[in-house]
Specification:
By secondary structure, this protein is of the alpha/beta class. It has two domains: 2-247 and 337-360, TIM Barrel; 250-329, no CATH class. Helices cover 39% and strands 15% of the residues. The protein has helices at 33-41, 64-82, 98-107, 123-127, 141-155, 177-181, 186-204, 219-228, 237-240, 249-257, 280-287, 311-319, 343-360; strands spanning 10-12, 15-17, 21-23, 46-49, 87-90, 112-115, 133-138, 162-165, 171-172, 210-213, 232-235, 263-267, 273-277, 328-329. An eight-stranded parallel sheet has the order 3-11-10-8-7-6-5-4. Strands 9, 12, 13 and 14 form a four-stranded antiparallel sheet that branches. Strands 1-2 form a two-stranded antiparallel sheet. α2 (64-82) links the parallel β4 and β5. α1 (33-41) runs parallel beside α2 and α2 (64-82) packs parallel to α3 (98-107). The longest helix is centred in the N-terminal third of the chain and has 19 residues, at 64-82. Mean pLDDT is 93; it is low at 1-5.
Length: 361
Amino acid sequence: MSNQIALPTLSIGNITVNLPIIQGGMGVAVSSFGLASAVSEEGALGVVAAVGSAMACDEPGLSYQQRSYRGLRTILQKTRTLTQKPVGVNIMCALSDYDQLVGAAVAEHIEVIFSGAGLPLHLPALTEGTKTNLVPIVSSARAASILCRTWAKKYHRLPDALVVEGPMAGGHLGFSLDEIAQRPSLEKIVSEVLAYVKTVEEQYQCRIPVIAAGGIFTGADIARFLNLGAAGVQMGTRFVCTHECDASESFKKMYLDCREEDIILVKSPVGLPLRVIKNAFLDRIMKERESFSCTYHCLKGCIPARSPYCIAMALTKAVVGALDNGIVTCGANAYRCHEIVSVHDLLSELQRECLAEQNRL
């Protein structure tokens, strides 16, 4: 496939990716070393999700933060054994061990850190003196402005790229339920961010690629955003339905079997909207609070005594197939997935569709 690339390359700081496609980081362990390495090997950019990395560490006597740090390093080391091409790590700002996880990524010389679920305003301080490229995930031009102005003033640097995530994305969303109900279009948000970034590029004589994310499903979608001025796209849902995805087969089957009306928004214990597929566990916790003891304290904003369930446990159980006690997160287009394919075949399909749409446009 690498000899038949029809799409533009994607440059992020000091790296260049053959395809302008980033596989979104999906936790807990939905995108781990298996998926991320396969995507990077095929010419796109694979991304490991840092959330839940404590699962990869079974050393006794360690704190949750210590297990997360060592677990993430273990996952990234496994990824390196499968590909020598650039890979990324997605680290949510909402994580209580955010600083330690950034340290683990830096220690493994990972090429790109993606960071959302809040604004990573102090991320440059954690990576100073390294070659790691930093890509914040924002949901508006206002957020992009706050972040760029803060980084420029405090750290004399700017993002190496920006991911602009719209309201159709999966997992935790950077919008309120009221904002989502107003149906803001990703095209409008991306256009506004592109206009703002242009002023920053002119002021600082730099280049900040803008990457569209959230609801992008086909190669025609990719072509549309490239035509709009985006440098690339980020996709998550399509990569769940691949053989290489690290989630269990029953997790993937939830995508194949769900209908559009099965995909709903719930309030996460951290206070953000969370897009999920309805199941018996959700029906149960919507009626009564689940009894649990917090052994993680993995999210900064989570207050266990007020939470109806432990999201860390629910996500962990789902990814290994214990769906009666788990939550399956997804993007708004998950119902459009109908088969499990290889990463190679998926990227080939997306390229063909994108080229056809580019020719039509």
